[in-house]
């Protein structure tokens, strides 16, 4: 069976990456693409690199246009998919790349997003370790709604959940500083994203516990078994088109050895082709993950500081968005989880 697909927000970065990956997927056929200000234009006007779709025209983003497809990917600005999704029937699998259905706490949603709450959907991070030692993929089989994680959240959650679940790091006093490229902010014109502001520089944003990914990180690490999770999260905008490099540190639990620490992460990811722990002494580069549906993890114990240090690299648009969306969709539909996805990146 070939599943019919519609993509809302197809003119944007996330929608474009879903399209790029779906072009290599044998089980999906993209029938409809929609946009907002670019509706009526050829898709290749805004996505000139997506030659497989030459001739497709961007339609208006409405429920009527999106309804009737087997799978609908929503890649819209925050706050724009909640009401739209409510109008799509249960017959379609709806996969939201935005934030509207990620948080299980309405209070946290209101505090960080300040817009109407539309409830939470099954969370699309298959490799996320859960408190019982299982993985989030067990909650995705057969579902008809998927909330794709925030890209920064994916990096931090994959970095820390194994240590929390295994009880080798303390869930309080986690610290992450994360370098991210401007594609994470979408195509929106912003003066702080101008090349002249970005090139040759780097700046922190969302500083002081106010970034909207903080509650999502806490939700995931609590789900991994952490009680009293607290995280100081600081993103830093750097001049690379794509990619995330997240450096996270956590206090060691008393009496835990460096070998205990490494085996916690090894156990979590030994069978995961898309989340790979690097050998001792190796740390990933963002450039190792560009175009790949892969998160690479480096791990060390800082004995003097009594902290575990993890370094995670991933492509925000692939493992951080479109790859996670397609991987989770494969699971929901009962397809082989890795269909249409590659652990290999492009280099140089
Ligand atoms: N970029 C990333 O790394 C990641 C993005 N995401 C999420 O994916 C979603 C899309 O992000 P991204 O692709 O980066 O953003 P872009 O700004 O690149 O694209 C936004 C898309 O939404 C459309 N759009 C804009 N305003 C409206 C509106 N009022 N109603 C309907 N459609 C609208 C745009 O259409 P048009 O161009 O025609 O105006 C465009 O297709 C966001 O929720 C984001 O959080 C998630 C993880 C990572
Ligand atoms: C550079 C930049 O602004 N990055 C974005 C990443 C957002 C993202 O991809 O996640 P969402 O789906 O939650 O938007 C940020 O830190 O907010």
From TrEMBL:
The active site consists of 151
Q: HAMAP family from the xrefs? A: ArgC_type1 (MF_00150)
Full protein name: N-acetyl-gamma-glutamyl-phosphate reductase
Q: EC top class, in one word? A: oxidoreductase
Is the keyword NADP in the record?
Answer: yes
Domain of life according to the entry: Bacteria
Chief location of this protein? cytoplasm
- Species source reads Herbiconiux daphne
Recorded metabolic or biological pathway in which this protein acts: Amino-acid biosynthesis; L-arginine biosynthesis; N(2)-acetyl-L-ornithine from L-glutamate: step 3/4
Q: Kinase: is it a keyword of this entry?
A: no
Q: What is the lineage of its organism?
A: Bacteria, Bacillati, Actinomycetota, Actinomycetes, Micrococcales
Keywords, comma-separated and alphabetical? Amino-acid biosynthesis, Arginine biosynthesis, Cytoplasm, NADP, Oxidoreductase
Q: Which SUPFAM superfamilies match?
A: Glyceraldehyde-3-phosphate dehydrogenase-like, C-terminal domain (SSF55347), NAD(P)-binding Rossmann-fold domains (SSF51735)
Briefly state the protein's biological role.
Catalyzes the NADPH-dependent reduction of N-acetyl-5-glutamyl phosphate to yield N-acetyl-L-glutamate 5-semialdehyde.
Protein family? Belongs to the NAGSA dehydrogenase family. Type 1 subfamily.
Q: Which residue numbers delimit the Semialdehyde dehydrogenase NAD-binding domain?
A: 4-136
Instruction: Kindly list the residue ranges recorded as spanning the membrane.
Output: none
Where is it located?
Answer: Cytoplasm
**The reaction(s) this protein catalyses:** N-acetyl-L-glutamate 5-semialdehyde + phosphate + NADP(+) = N-acetyl-L-glutamyl 5-phosphate + NADPH + H(+)
Q: What is its EC number?
A: 1.2.1.38
């Amino acid at each position: 069976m070939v599943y019919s697909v519609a993509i809302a927000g197809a003119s944007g970065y996330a929608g474009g990456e879903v399209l790029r990956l779906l072009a290599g997927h044998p089980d999906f056929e993209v029938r409809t693409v929609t946009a907002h200000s670019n509706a009526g234009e050829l898709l290749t006007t805004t996505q000139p690199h997506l030659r497989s779709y030459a001739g497709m025209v961007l339609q208006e983003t409405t429920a009527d246009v999106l309804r009737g497809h087997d799978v609908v990917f929503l890649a819209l600005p925050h706050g724009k998919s909640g009401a739209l999704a409510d109008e799509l029937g249960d017959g379609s699998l709806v996969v939201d790349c935005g934030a509207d259905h990620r948080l299980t706490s309405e209070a946290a949603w209101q505090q960080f997003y300040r817009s109407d709450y539309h409830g939470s959907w099954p969370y699309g991070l298959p490799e996320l370790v859960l408190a019982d030692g299982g993985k989030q993929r067990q909650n995705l089989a057969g579902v008809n709604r998927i909330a794709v994680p925030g890209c920064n959240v994916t990096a931090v959650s994959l970095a820390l959940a194994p240590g929390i679940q295994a009880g080798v790091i303390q869930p309080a006093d986690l610290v992450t500083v994360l370098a991210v490229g401007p594609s994470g902010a979408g195509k929106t014109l912003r003066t702080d994203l101008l090349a002249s502001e970005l090139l040759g520089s780097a700046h922190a944003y969302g500083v002081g516990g106010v970034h909207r990914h903080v509650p999502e990180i806490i939700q995931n690490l609590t789900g991994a078994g952490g009680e009293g999770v607290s995280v100081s999260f600081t993103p830093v905008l750097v001049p690379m088109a794509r990619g995330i490099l997240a450096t996270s540190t956590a206090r060691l639990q008393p009496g835990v050895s460096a070998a205990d620490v490494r085996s916690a992460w090894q156990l979590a990811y030994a069978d995961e082709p898309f989340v790979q722990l690097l050998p001792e002494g190796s740390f990933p580069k963002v450039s190792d993950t560009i175009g790949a549906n892969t998160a690479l993890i480096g791990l060390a114990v800082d004995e003097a500081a009594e902290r575990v240090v993890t370094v995670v690299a991933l492509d925000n648009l692939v493992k951080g968005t479109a790859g996670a969306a397609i991987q989770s969709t494969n699971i929901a539909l009962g397809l082989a989880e890795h269909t249409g996805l590659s652990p290999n990146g492009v280099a140089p």
